[in-house]
Amino acid sequence: MRSQGATPAVIPAQRWRDEGRGGIHPLPVRAGIHLGTDRAGQPVSVPALGTTGIRIGVLGESLFGRLFALRLLAAGARVTASTRVPDQWSGVRHAAGDRLEFTEGEGAGDWPAHTPAPPTVEAGPQALISDRRRPPPVACAAGPWRTVLHVTRAVPRHSAFWGGADAVLALDAQFAPMAARVLGEEAGRLAASLAPGQIALFRPAAGTAEVLRPDVSPGETALLTPGAPAARRGG
Fold first, then answer.
1. Between 198 and 106, where is the model more confident?
2. Is the pTM of this model over 0.85?
3. Pick from 67, 99, 86, 94: which is nearest to 231 by CA?
4. CA distance 176 to 193
């Protein structure tokens, strides 16, 4: 209690100035699913599970789709697979439980079966992984919390899905001609320069590209290899 007649102190209003922050400034970061490390040893990720729909095109083998599915599951996504090789998903299926589903037929079916939501809310964010010859419809990624990935060795001409992809990966130098057809000659030259074990990540909207080496853990390798002892034991 203040004394009779005392006047309470008044803190004058002040304008917050950047120079008063001690040199600490918030900066935007690239959030997403970790892929590997670049030539400088820095981590590289691809956008996924965001507040807008995300389309990812991958020039390579279907194994990459299963690897990406594992990392999406680890991030809390409910994953649907539209695949030509369901038997190859046995390890991922074992690890995923009821958060991995499969579509029937050649297309994406009625995906998503659950309304996409932020992580930890209801069914959480959704993801569709396809290794079919025909890319998923563009509409699959038309909405928040939807990540759609198509992995193929050959992109159909005039593909709307690939034409507006948020990220494109070339997993080997052998896919340089296809990278050139999808993204232009400069992208083809970069893909052609890849050494064994390197992959190229293109961000078409930003006009950027980077070369990296993927990081794959022994546990992931076991789950991605059908019949591996660790997968049979649940390790």
1. 198
2. no
3. 94
4. 9
